[in-house]
Write a structure and sequence with these properties.
about 120 residues; mainly alpha; globular
Length: about 120
């Protein structure tokens, strides 16, 4: 049974992106065959710049959210900047995986977060 339904959407998007990426690499024979298009086409330059800007903005959101949760966001930013959309999707999956539905009768919509939330808290 799925622990948290919020895991499903990023997991499906991750899987779809992985399948399309594998198909593209398989059909062209190389993961770098599209690089000349980026350098010779104005649209290639626009798409590249748009992608880089989007990943930088997403990285800022990841850092802020990770900081609020007491998690180190740097590995997720590195993953985002090196793998593109795989990084944020994996972050969302890990974030949802750490959340468990409450079972203490607090309420049907309650969520208990597993792990250290307070960055100032010290382990004993």
């Amino acid at each position: 049974m799925l622990r948290n339904p919020r895991f499903l959407l990023p997991a499906l998007a991750f899987d779809a992106l992985l399948l399309v990426s594998l198909w593209a690499g398989w059909s062209t024979g190389s993961a770098t065959s599209w690089l000349p298009w980026l350098a010779t086409s104005p649209w290639g330059a626009q798409v590249s710049l748009d992608f880089v800007l989007a990943m930088v903005v997403v990285s800022g959101f990841i850092l802020q959210d990770a900081r609020e949760r007491g998690v180190n966001g740097v590995p997720w930013v590195v993953a985002t900047l090196t793998t593109g959309s795989f990084g944020p999707l994996a972050y969302l999956m890990a974030r949802a995986w750490q959340e468990q539905p409450a079972t203490d009768g607090v309420g049907a919509g309650s969520v208990r977060v597993v792990g250290r939330l307070d960055p100032g808290a010290r382990r004993r």
